[in-house]
Design a protein that fits this description.
Blueprint lengths: L11 H9 L3 H20 L5 H18 L9 H19 L39 H17 L2 H12 L4 H8 L3 H26 L4
Length: 209
């Protein structure tokens, strides 16, 4: 099977058939497409980058071993990320770094206020100053990464899956086994925290007219 560069992945049916046939090109395409995001999610649960890499490796091994029994009750991506999260949780608990998810229920409390949209930004990002130049854009990316790193675990994972990996709300609920309402609140709070960090930054660099 040929390269998928630039063309995206084929349908799940094609992906599953290729993996079951041992197609190395398909496996390489999945690695290229999802491994970086999987590392980000895994790192939220474990204590070191090395541990996150091992979680991802263990996940891919589980995918290879389990693809024959994949029942297509969800998308391939959802299935793989759910394996990843379960693997990362177990590794995190062994490292005594990750508490049970129930310990973070306070992250999913009532939404901020009646004027907010729980599943979106209170103010659209377009209202901010658009970074100009590679140096400024790089600094903004660093600020976003810093803001994400400071989020409570559940918020960080939800925003990573939704806004970085492009998962739908239904997929995130299935991967993390949380309710739709909880997912919306966690996403809202995470986006609000990142938005506020960037708003403070742009205010600080705003030049007088």
């Amino acid at each position: 099977m040929g390269s998928f560069a630039g063309g995206g992945l084929p349908s799940d049916d094609v992906v599953v058939a290729a993996l079951r046939a041992g197609d190395e090109a398909m496996f390489a395409a999945l690695l290229d497409t999802w491994s970086r995001g999987m590392l980000r999610v895994a790192r939220s649960y474990v204590s070191t980058d090395h541990s996150a890499e091992e979680v991802v490796q263990d996940t891919w091994l589980a995918v290879i071993d389990g693809i024959g029994g994949f029942e297509r009750r969800s998308s391939v991506k959802t299935w793989i990320f759910r394996i990843l999260v379960n693997t990362a949780k177990k590794r995190g608990v062994r490292e005594s770094r990750t508490l049970p998810w129930s310990a973070f229920e306070r992250d999913g409390g009532p939404a901020a206020g009646p004027g907010d949209t729980p599943d979106g930004w209170k103010e659209p990002p377009a209202a901010w100053v658009t970074p100009e130049g590679a140096a400024l854009a790089s600094e903004v990316r660093g600020l976003i990464a810093e803001a994400l790193g400071r989020l409570p675990p559940r918020q960080r994972i939800v925003i990573a899956l939704r806004d970085v990996e492009g998962c739908s709300s239904d997929e995130v609920c299935e991967i993390l086994e949380i309710s739709a309402a909880n997912q919306r609140v966690l996403l809202h709070r995470a986006r609000a925290a990142v938005r506020d960090r960037l708003a403070d930054y742009f205010e600080s660099v705003k030049q007088p007219d």
